[in-house]
Amino acid sequence: MNSSALVPQIPHRQPTPKAGDPYLKFHLGSHIAAAFSMRHVQEAIVLPSRRLTPMPNMPAAMLGLMNRRSRVNWVVDLAQLLGLQASAAQHKMQYSLVMVQVGTVPIGLAVQQVEGLSWISPDSIQSPLGQVSLSLIPFLRGCVLQQQDQKQEVILILDAEAIVQSPILLGVRSED
């Protein structure tokens, strides 16, 4: 990613709701930070791999099905769905999941690590054009550059609606 064209956002000493909107921040890989607006996030959970049922003949990003609160949900490797990295998720003992819901569609998105809540001002979200791979653009609302422990970090602001509408997930949901 090219962070040279992004304008840094200096975090306030004590984040408050006045500092922006709430986002759940997580990592998709060792150097890839991302966030979802909390309006789509239901919860973040750790799921033991034994509670995930793999389904045959599915795209590689589809990890399987899980039963959560008497509902069956698909679990997807988010990094692989976005084409960011080859996943070793099938060999994990547990998954860090971000449970999102768009309309009536709930889905579990496996991520490398959930960091927690961040407050991001809408004005600080910048265009991702020229900053990330073109294949990511349809899934992004933008990017934010934040100061994090003496270094600058690019945070991808993901669009939950676009992810739920991705061709892989639409194909799987039409088979339900």
Summarize the structure.
It is built from three helices and eleven strands; from the N terminus they run E-E-E-E-E-E-H-E-E-E-E-E-H-H. With 176 residues, the chain is mostly beta strands.
How many domains comprise the coordinates?
1
Specify the structural class: mainly beta
Question: Could you spell the SSE succession in H and E letters?
Answer: EEEEEEHEEEEEHH
What oligomeric state do the depicted chains represent?
A: single chain
Percentage of residues assigned to helices: under 10%
CATH class: Mainly Beta
CATH architecture: Beta Barrel
Q: Helix segment count?
A: 3
Overall morphology: globular
Write up this protein.
With about 180 residues, the protein is mostly beta strands. The chain has a single domain, classed as OB fold (Dihydrolipoamide Acetyltransferase, E2P). The chain has 3 helices and 11 strands, in the order ββββββαβββββαα. The protein has helices at about 80, 160-165, 165-175, and strands at about 10, 20-30, 30-35, 40-50, 60-70, 70-75, 95-100, 105-110, 115-120, 140-150, 150-160. It has a 6-stranded mixed sheet with strand order 1-10-11-3-2-9. Strands 4-7-8-6-5 form a 5-stranded mixed sheet. The longest helix is centred in the C-terminal third of the chain and has 8 residues, at about 165-175. The chain is globular and about 40 Å long. It starts with 7 loop residues before the first strand and ends with a helix. Residues about 10-15 have low confidence and may be disordered.
